[in-house]
Design the sequence.
């Protein structure tokens, strides 16, 4: 496996090992957490790429981070060894004999995938899954079950340098959840229309007996489901097949209800925060109901669902200080998360700590939208974008302009090169006994999570 330390590739390596295959892999810089898991699973990994690493395997799986010029990829091509993409491998080894349920969309895929798995698991279906994050209930991001269902996070990112189509097309799902659709992945897509077309193609391969559950709150999804031959049912806050409504907070739970013509009114409570998570829950519950899962089992599963690591995760709480970690990097996701923290904790001082790290967030496509994403925060601390030199100069985000725009809203905002200085700023200026620190990045953020927890505990 070339590029084995990515989350999806590393997870696939573990799944193949669990099936009894002899698996080896390599990556440019072998790094945790995946490197630790690979070692735990007994998978030999090579640090750095070299043709000698490949040997003579029966099959080579090439990750989508690998490009032409990679010495191992070049060796594979020159030697005629059989090779496939990660998405093809998942299809061939795990999905072809299962009833596959894909969860796709710009936001909410990981939480919705994990929750739908938890519902079906709690209902005794013994499903399989591949999740883009670690489910706290499962304490893993994959399971190979004996039941008929396989729930998979359907990513729209392309599959490989030799297969420039979205991974979700190759999964050939029988059922589909569409959580959202906005422009993203500016490094591979030229426009929103291009992404919309691929989502429409995805819907077009769902069987007529299959279920498509889609959010009515994203107009772009109406285009995707229009003229579908499948059973398409919407969900949202109003005028949908499944309507959800928040009712109250009580203790550590949010209470809400889902109303549908088919299932009536169902009362729920959840440990997850925010309307966006209520939408995710509604999507998963709607799919489960359409598949015939009993209401009571769904309600209990939602109540016992602990969430996904790195998704609105409370990683520290003591003496009025709360520290959350979130994967948010798109302006919509940042806005959702901070808005809900403000609604849940209206009297708190909210610190937004953000690292532009994804391919899109380091580009200027959302430069004008990004300042408004922080409206619910009191103080905004932004690290200079990760590896900005790898982005073409004319496409780079101007982070100073973003910060200046935030300051014009009479908010305190700063740019930093060093996470230790960010932490110093926070702990030198904690002003109340009710502060919230929201750290947002889709990467390691230079180890800020462990550092800030250590500082907070002293």
Sequence:
């Amino acid at each position: 496996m070339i590029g084995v330390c990515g989350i999806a590739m590393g997870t696939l390596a573990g799944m193949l090992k669990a099936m009894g295959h002899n698996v080896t892999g390599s990556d440019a810089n072998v790094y945790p957490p995946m490197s630790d898991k690979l070692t735990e699973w007994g998978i030999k990994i090579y640090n750095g790429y070299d043709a000698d690493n490949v040997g003579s395997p029966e099959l080579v799986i090439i990750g989508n981070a690998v490009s032409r010029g990679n010495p191992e990829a070049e060796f594979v091509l020159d030697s005629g060894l059989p090779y496939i993409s990660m998405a093809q491998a998942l299809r061939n080894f795990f999905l072809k004999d299962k009833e596959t349920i894909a969860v796709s969309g710009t936001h909410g895929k990981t939480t919705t995938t994990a929750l739908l798995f938890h519902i079906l698991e709690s209902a005794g279906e013994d499903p399989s899954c591949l999740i883009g994050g670690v489910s706290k209930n499962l304490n893993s991001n994959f399971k190979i079950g004996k039941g008929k269902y396989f729930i998979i996070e359907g990513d729209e990112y392309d599959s490989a340098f030799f297969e420039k189509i979205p991974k979700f097309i190759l999964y050939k799902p029988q059922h589909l959840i569409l959580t959202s659709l906005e422009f993203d992945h500016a490094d591979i897509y030229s426009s929103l229309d291009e992404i919309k077309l691929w989502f429409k193609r995805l819907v077009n391969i769902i069987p007529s007996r299959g279920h498509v559950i889609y959010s009515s709150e994203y107009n772009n999804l109406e285009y995707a489901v229009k003229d579908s031959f499948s059973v398409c049912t919407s969900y949202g806050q109003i005028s949908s097949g499944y309507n959800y409504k928040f009712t109250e907070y009580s203790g550590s739970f949010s209470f809400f209800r889902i109303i549908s013509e088919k299932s009536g009114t169902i009362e729920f409570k959840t440990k997850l925060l925010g309307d966006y998570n209520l939408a995710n829950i509604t999507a998963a519950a709607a799919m489960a109901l359409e598949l015939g899962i009993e209401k009571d089992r769904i309600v209990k599963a939602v109540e016992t669902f602990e969430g996904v690591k790195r998704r609105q995760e409370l990683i520290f709480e003591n003496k009025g200080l709360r520290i959350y970690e979130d994967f948010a990097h798109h302006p919509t996701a940042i806005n959702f998360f901070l808005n809900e923290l403000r609604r849940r904790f209206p009297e708190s001082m909210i610190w937004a700590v953000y690292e532009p790290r994804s391919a899109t967030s380091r580009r200027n496509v959302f430069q004008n939208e990004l300042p408004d994403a922080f409206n619910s925060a009191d103080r905004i601390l932004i690290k200079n974008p990760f590896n900005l030199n790898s982005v073409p100069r004319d496409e780079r985000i101007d982070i100073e302009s973003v910060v200046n725009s935030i300051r014009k809203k009479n908010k305190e905002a700063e740019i930093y090169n060093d996470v230790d200085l960010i932490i110093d700023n926070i702990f030198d200026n904690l002003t109340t006994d009710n502060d919230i620190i929201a750290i947002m990045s889709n990467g390691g953020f230079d180890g800020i999570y462990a550092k800030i927890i250590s500082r907070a505990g002293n």
